[in-house]
Design brief:
Strand order of the largest sheet: 3-4-2-1-5-6-7
InterPro entries: Asp/hSer_DH_NAD-bd, DRL_cat, NAD(P)-bd_dom_sf, SAF
Largest sheet: 7 strands, parallel
Pfam families: DRL_cat, NAD_binding_3
Radius of gyration: 22 Å
Structural class: alpha/beta
Distance between the termini: 37 Å
GO molecular function, one term: oxidoreductase activity
Length: 428
């Protein structure tokens, strides 16, 4: 079977290319457009963003001439522009998901409800959907996967994001017959459960990033959500609520991820976790009960066993997304998808004391952070998934800092798309 680069080259040699529709021209979207513009056999033909100047700047920064950027919210005009080898800039999300010429849609918004709407519309239009929106995926991904399977299209997370990079290590080891003890990622910054857009403002400004996005990394929500996506994809679970968050180097990992009975720190196997000290990498801890395999691993300087670490020291975020686009288009296969349904649940926890009648805000905000539980534990508690948190959620009673917020604690004043989809998913 041809590799992706050769398949793309063949497509270009035939005078064709994969036509990509992008929604969200922020940092992730901008990088992806520029990366794809330097590739063979692929182009971002239409991009939507609330701020049209974001789209225009993204195309210009990718080296695309202003004269070939068609600004329109009209379907007929957009189709005509693409047929003339122009690219479309629009504020109309549904234009991108419905354009007949678009083969694969990419959601780079990072907003759970919007991501759910985009995926829903894309699948209904029988197009592949690549999600750079793990928050939406862990909330309604199992339902969206079923829909996509029925429609004959691909629903997938992205290569380059940590879940996708972990999935590659898992698939590699699993295909060779190793037992996978644990998988995980490094955390880039110390855990601060009280982080919010104000406390993150100075660092965000220095990095040129969103304070809310940075706060969602600092308070651990992003890590919880990412490992939730991995759990749903491979059937693993957190070893304890919120995971362990061990400290250590890559060399320490094989011994850390042993059962406590073996001198390690685990209560069980087949777990997801994160480690402070190995960022920005991802890892898989593998083992074998075969004497010859262990002898070969020792010869290959993989360690003395019985555990070994597979470590990837980088992930290129949206710059790798084109690989997921191509895999969906050529092979009709996902990079990572919730094969096992809901194995974990990232639930909302009060970031501070919250008053009766107070409205929640959003991921990376001032009111809540996410904590990963096993799915059955979350169901028993009636815990509110973090992906359902938005400005329409009102507290019916006061919540103490550090307490899990339940469905019984809240009322939804305006039911959004992601709430409707989650209700459908829970009903089976």
């Amino acid at each position: 079977m041809l590799n992706i680069n050769r398949k793309l080259q063949k497509l270009e040699n035939e005078g064709s290319y994969i036509k990509v529709g992008l929604i969200g021209a922020g940092q992730m979207g901008r990088g992806m457009i520029s990366q794809i513009e330097g590739m063979k056999g692929m182009r971002v033909v239409a991009t939507a963003d609330l701020a049209i100047e974001n789209v225009e700047n993204a195309y210009k920064n990718a080296g695309i001439s202003t004269s070939t950027i068609a600004v329109t919210d009209d379907l007929t005009k957009a189709e005509s522009a693409i047929n003339q080898n122009q690219v479309v800039a629009t504020t109309n999300v549904k234009l991108v998901t419905s354009l007949p010429d678009v083969d694969v849609v990419v959601d780079a918004t990072g907003i759970p409800n919007l991501g759910a709407e985009i995926a829903w519309d894309t699948i209904l239009n029988k197009k592949h959907i690549v999600m750079l929106n793990v928050e939406a995926d862990v909330t309604v991904g199992p339902l969206l996967k079923k829909m996509a399977d029925s429609a004959g299209v691909v629903y997938t997370g992205t290569a380059g994001d940590e879940p996708g990079a972990i999935m590659e290590l898992y698939d590699f080891a699993d295909a060779m017959g190793f037992e996978i003890v644990a998988v995980g990622k490094g955390k880039n910054n110390p855990l601060n459960l009280e982080a919010n857009p104000d406390t993150a403002a100075d660092e965000a400004k220095a990095k040129g990033s969103s304070p809310k996005m940075l706060a969602s990394f600092q308070d651990g929500t992003k890590t919880m959500v990412e490992m939730n996506a991995v759990a749903n994809a491979i059937g693993f679970a957190p070893d304890q609520p919120g995971m362990h968050g061990f400290e250590g180097s890559v060399a320490d990992l094989p011994n850390i991820f042993k059962d406590k009975s073996q001198g390690g720190k685990l209560n069980g196997r087949r777990i997801v976790d994160f480690v402070n000290g190995v960022a920005p990498g991802v890892f898989a801890i593998i083992t074998s009960d075969k004497e010859e395999v262990n002898a070969e691993m020792k010869y290959l300087k993989m360690g003395d066993g019985p555990n070994y670490v597979l470590y990837r020291p980088y992930h290129l975020t949206s710059l790798e997304t084109p690989l997921s686009i191509a895999k969906a288009y050529f092979d009709n296969e996902p990079t990572i998808t919730p094969y096992f349904g809901g194995q974990g649940e990232t639930v909302a926890v009060a970031k501070k004391d919250l008053a009766e009648g107070e409205f929640l805000d959003s991921i990376g905000g001032f009111t809540v952070y996410g904590k990963l539980l096993k799915a059955d534990e979350a169901r028993e508690k009636g815990a509110l998934p973090i992906g359902l948190v938005d400005k329409n959620v009102k507290l019916k009673n006061a919540i103490k800092k550090g307490d899990i917020i339940t469905y019984g604690d809240i009322e939804q004043t305006n039911e959004s798309t992601i709430w409707k989809l989650r209700s459908m998913q829970d009903k089976g």
